[in-house]
Automatic annotation (TrEMBL):
Domain of life: Bacteria
Domain named Glutaredoxin: residues: 4-61
Pfam families: Glutaredoxin
UniProt cross-references to PANTHER family, sorted A to Z: GLUTAREDOXIN, GLUTAREDOXIN-LIKE PROTEIN NRDH
Protein name (Swiss-Prot/TrEMBL): Glutaredoxin
Length: 120
């Protein structure tokens, strides 16, 4: 599954909204604060990213909080176990996927959508 890296700054209100969006969706990401981390700032310059929040998802980059584009690039969804509510990452576009909950052991099936069904 694709890694998500988000470049942020400490004073950016849009970065806070972006973190809240990713957290609510259950997406795992690595935050790189360009105000606190000179290597993050250098990487952002090398990638020619000119603002925060900026995202690197797999090989793609996004500047700004474009929720639709972010979700289209992420190759998984986060599903909750119907028994205990534990979240699990499920790959997109695989049809029926059997999930075994790591928390309670419940086995359940998730019907994943193909990319064309998701509008991506």
């Amino acid at each position: 599954m694709k890694n998500i890296v988000m470049f942020t700054s400490s004073t950016c209100p849009h970065c806070k909204s972006a973190k809240q969006f990713l957290d609510e969706k259950g997406y795992k990401y690595v935050e790189r604060n360009v105000q606190l981390d000179p290597l993050a700032q250098q990487e952002m310059v090398q990638r020619k990213l000119m603002g925060v929040p900026s995202f690197v998802i797999g090989d793609e980059t996004i500047v700004g909080l474009d929720k639709h584009k972010i979700e289209a690039l992420i190759d998984y969804t986060v599903e909750k176990c119907p028994e205990c509510g534990q979240r699990a990452r499920v790959p997109k576009g695989k049809g029926k996927v059997k999930v075994n909950c790591k928390s309670c052991g419940n086995a359940y099936v998730v019907l994943t959508k193909s990319m064309w069904q998701q509008g991506g």
